[in-house]
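DM from R.C. (forwarded with permission)

"hey, sorry to bug you on a friday — could you get me a structure for this? deadline for the figure draft is monday and I only need the backbone to look sensible"
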Amino acid sequence: MASLEELRQVRINKLNLLKEKGINPYPIESHIQYSLKEVSEKFEEIERSSAEIVLGGRIMSLREQGAIIFTDLFDGTARFQVLVHKEKIGDDAFDLFSKTTDIGDFIEVSGTLFVTKRGQQTIEAHGWTMLSKSLRPLPEKWHGLQDTEERFRRRYLDTLMDEEVRNRFLIRSKIVSTIRRILDSESFVEVETPILQGLAGGATALPFKTHFNALDEDFFLRIAPELFLKKLLIGGFPKVYEIGRNFRNEGIDVTHNPEFTMLEFYEAYSDASKQMVFVEKLIKEVVKTVSPSNLEMDFDKPFSVVSYDDLLKNAGVKEGTKATREEAEAVAKSKDIKVAPSDSRAKILDNIYKKSCRGEIIKPTFIVDYPADYLPLAKRSIEDSSLVSAFQLIIGGLECVKAFSELNDPIDQRERFAKGDEEKKSGDGEAQTTDDEFIEAMEYGQPPAGGVGIGIDRLVMILTNTHNIREVILFPTLRPKN
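My reply, with the result:
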């Protein structure tokens, strides 16, 4: 069996043959008139006209039968058959095609349409042009890339050779465009906020740190756009949203990638309860529009609502959200959950919930009534000041949405940030610390608002029945090859 380098050399020899014939194997121009999907849809009309047309794409198969060669082209929209017949195209063009083309090459062909005896739409080539000579063979058709990490590392081959993978990313694109359409129709304004930030805030997470040479200052890749989006509420934009990348310096597993896509939107004069209604409406509209045929989840019924307190009690935390740090630590250790000396009470309770509760929540379920120290940017509940007005949406055991009534009391906000400062000093690298610029902005007056964050990657996982986040990110983070 020939080595990859030997196969590559054969193709380079074919490349050189084209050059010897005075042919540029990578020309600037192409003259393609239709996508392959378009020509298939308009086939009868074009065939009746007997017009000569130009089609193009990547060669995906070659079947040579003496003076006849059949090839299938793929252009990203569809596949289409080409017949290269020596009598129709001429000896020289036929011989050059036979000697220089390979599976993987991009070509264009001019010719007329006809239907084969087997009923297959085909173009009979009267001429052809090399558009891009490929130098490496594509993965074998039936087996593709067998190593999972190589699939992620060479995603361009994964999407090319596996229609299911390619369709998954088309669904992802449709999900994002549907969300944009819904938000735009509700008068939200799409904005962009900094990814490079002087202070990483807006979420409880460990940031990536870098150094800005021009200012000789340390900066961080954003962990969330929240604080900047809320500054825009202060600045007179009542409805804003952003779909973009966040970065968190955490481990990689089936539900986490350090670089991921989030939607965050904020609505002035709203609150968590109103946003809960809107989120359910939005998710159901996305499902209806994307309508994946193999969807395992039932989104037609009203979403369930359970309290965080009840979940913790069911997990063995007798006092639920009222439990002390010592009580929470005892339960955690009984469940073999690691507890660091710097872990706050809220973090320990959250780890208990994540291990014992979240994975069991399959149907779409809103979780409400979180402790105030769990969400330092959320407004306190009217009924119980130890809780906040907030919710999460869990689907298929995955946290997809986090939302709350936004805290707009700058004095309360400073006090809660101060607790985060203490946790940071105690060794909690994920703690949210004081952002003086944000508090200053709040002191000019921040309208009451409801804010929502939706994890796009996890939503795509659910709507494509995928169980690894790297399957829905085109180029996931991987350890560099040595």
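R.C.: lifesaver. The mean pLDDT is 94.
me: no worries. The two ends are 26 Å apart (CA to CA).
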